[in-house]
Specification:
By secondary structure, the chain is of the alpha/beta class. The chain folds into 3 domains: 118 residues, 3-Layer(aba) Sandwich (D-Maltodextrin-Binding Protein, domain 2), CATH 3.40.190.10; 82 residues, D-Maltodextrin-Binding Protein, domain 2, CATH 3.40.190; 93 residues, Porphobilinogen deaminase, C-terminal domain (Double Stranded RNA Binding Domain, 2-Layer Sandwich), CATH 3.30.160. 35% of the residues lie in helices and 24% in strands. The chain contains 10 helices and 13 strands. A 5-stranded mixed β-sheet has the order 2-1-3-10-4, with helices on both faces. A 5-stranded mixed β-sheet has the order 7-6-8-5-9, with helices on both faces. Strands 11-12-13 form a 3-stranded antiparallel β-sheet. Helix 1 links the parallel strand 1 and strand 2. The protein is globular and about 60 Å long. The model has no long low-confidence stretch (mean pLDDT 92).
């Protein structure tokens, strides 16, 4: 039996897919797992901010199309790249145990965000990160930073930037945890929706594939991801707007934090909600509606009016 996994060709995406491949082959020695490298729109366009490129699913659409064509049987995604709504006929069936969800502060000279000098240059490709950083430090000069993890680290090492902010999960998965200078606590900087979570996407009704991968599912990671994605879907936000959410399972309950911010960080709306663990989507919807009522609707309308894509 052959299981074909569709994956982006970046070193991080391949590391994540290789991890799934090894786990499946260890569990099912009679199965041959093959990786199919697929280039997405987000991989091709590197000379423009993601928020200006256009549309949802910049890093998943082509892989989803390969799934629907049955060119591949499974896709391994970073959930923070996956739109709140999947293409018809597909589903995220398995959520492996979440990696560290936090953002990582990386610098050669300074040990913490607060130690950066006035007007320091900080690189990030995320409007979510830049809005929260500017809220904490309005003096910072935010520099748009595209490319894979290695490219971003090279730009820091070249000396043009005093610091960059990356997902801790990606650095951990690439064996680069030693590059992390400090972690940005979610109490201060909320991570992206689904950050640190892998999502295994497949065709609906494909029981053979589900039987091969279901052992990888982590219930707590699934509940957290479902709550966060429901929050994002209700806000009608995408991966490239200053929206953040982080859920944590606490016994029979889920604690969900959510945030919407002005692009310049001048206003950050943030709330939290705690509720039954068996109703993650309800929690996400409720928290999103609270933030919309508190003014998030006007913030998002303003952002989209500036030509940024949801």
């Amino acid at each position: 039996m052959i299981l074909r996994i569709g994956t982006r060709a970046s070193r991080l995406a391949l590391a994540q897919s290789e991890w799934v491949k090894k786990a499946v082959q260890t569990r099912h020695p009679n199965v041959r797992v093959e990786l199919s490298r697929i280039t997405t729109k987000g991989d091709k366009i590197l000379d423009a901010p993601l928020s200006k490129v256009g549309g949802k699913g910049l890093f998943v659409k082509e892989i989803e199309e390969a799934l629907l064509r049955k060119d591949v049987d499974l896709a391994v995604h970073s959930m923070k790249d996956v739109p709140a709504e999947l293409q018809k006929g597909l589903k995220i069936s398995v959520y492996p145990k979440r990696e560290d969800p936090r953002d990582a502060f990386v610098s050669k000279e300074f040990t913490a965000l607060k130690e950066l000098p006035q007007g320091a240059s900080v690189g990030t490709s995320s409007l979510r990160r830049s809005a929260q950083l500017l809220h904490l430090r309005p003096d910072l000069h935010i520099v748009p930073l595209r490319g894979n993890v290695d490219t971003r680290l090279r730009k820091l090492d070249s000396g043009d930037l005093q610091a960059i902010v990356l997902a801790a999960a990606g650095l951990n998965r690439l064996g680069l945890a030693h590059r992390i200078t400090a972690f940005l606590d979610p109490e201060t900087v909320l991570p992206a929706i689904g950050q640190g979570v892998l999502g295994l996407e497949m065709r609906e009704g494909d029981q053979d594939t589900l039987d091969l991968i279901s052992f990888l599912n982590d219930p707590d990671s699934e509940l957290a991801a479902r709550a966060e994605r429901s929050f994002l879907k209700t806000l009608e936000g995408g991966c490239q707007v200053p929206v953040a959410g982080y859920a944590r399972v606490e016994g029979d309950l889920i604690l969900l934090h959510g945030m919407v911010a002005e692009l310049d960080g001048s206003r950050v709306l943030r709330q939290e909600i705690r509720g039954p663990g068996d109703k993650p989507e309800t929690l996400g919807v409720t928290l999103a509606k609270r933030l919309l009522s508190a003014g998030a609707d006007r913030i998002l309308e303003k952002i989209y009016g500036q030509g940024l894509v949801p």
